[in-house]
Amino acid sequence: MAPLQRFQWQRTSHGFRFIASTWSPTYVEWFQSNQSYSRRSGRQASLMLLIPLGRYGHVFTIKLGSAIVLVVNNWESGKECFTINDLNVSYRPSILMTEHMTYNQGMFSFSPYGAYWREIRKMSNSGILSKNKVDLLSDIRGLEVKSSIQELFNLWSQKKDESNFMLVEMKQWFRELALNVIFHIAAGKKDFGGDATNNDKEAQTYIKTIRKFLRLIGTYTIADAIPLLRWLISAKNTQFSYTFMALI
């Protein structure tokens, strides 16, 4: 889902055109439906968005308070969102999360389309994501993969059972490998493994903070739906501020 300000789009022979939103549950109705649907079905509440699929097609909008949210229900339309119609979904609204956790939309991924976004994107493509830069950092990626496999082998040697098997949590292994590559490139050190710079307790604190950050990124608060309520929320007393300060 990508938040928009004012419009819904509809497929035409020339691509998409914007029309007024038609199916618009209020924020309270949406919250109540989410809660009841989750308890009744035991599945994710986001599946409720399949309900208007037959009437409105694979691309439609719903209204959450003052915000209009674009819903895309198939990969073909999703691909068009980021290719043919990328400018139409490049807008990023200012919500509590972006204000307190992205330097007020200063982070490239959360910035609205404009001169700043275009300049940072150009710098990213020519610098960080350029072929020369990627090739230059390939040794670090290879080193971390080799180191992680060696540590996995050492662990297997110590804890294997009588059948030479050992249960490994691959989700955790891949997570620590990815974080080691990121930290090695960004800070020149690693946080997991036998030769890690930090102890295990500090590394686990990093993981918890990052998890909370990623969870809060998708948070849409009542103050975002009803902007008049924002004055009731102190910036210093929000989970956004606490988590962001812990992360930096």
Automatic annotation (TrEMBL):
Q: What is this protein called?
A: Cytochrome P450
Please give the PANTHER family that the UniProt record associates with this protein.
Answer: CYTOCHROME P450 82C3-RELATED (PTHR47947), CYTOCHROME P450 FAMILY PROTEIN (PTHR47947:SF49)
Q: Which UniProt keywords apply?
A: Heme, Iron, Metal-binding, Monooxygenase, Oxidoreductase
SUPFAM superfamilies from the xrefs?
Cytochrome P450
Query: Has the keyword Iron been applied to this entry?
Result: yes
**GO MF, any single term:** monooxygenase activity
Identify the domain of life. Answer: Eukaryota
Q: Does the keyword Transport apply?
A: no
